[in-house]
Amino acid sequence: MGLNIERYKGIEFVRISSLPKEQQQRVWESFERHKIIKIVRDQSLMNDCILYNDYTAWQARIQPKPEAQPAVFPDAIQKLAFE
Fold first, then answer.
1. I need a labelling partner for 25 at 20 to 30 A (CA). Which of 1, 41, 58, 62 fits?
2. Over pLDDT 70: what percentage of the chain?
């Protein structure tokens, strides 16, 4: 996914409306409301902004954690180790 990171006066942010539709819904349902900010740029109000750092932290929280996989060794290595 090509995330559209915007910058304004040194602030890096992501607009919820620029995210894929399914992710927009997840953000509106689960993102902390006080972290959704408003930015006025060129006399236009953008009321769906998230600081980039807050967005990446949210992403890390909602991503499923990979389950630990047992180490798999080829038979040759196992034979050497246990012979």
1. 41
2. 73
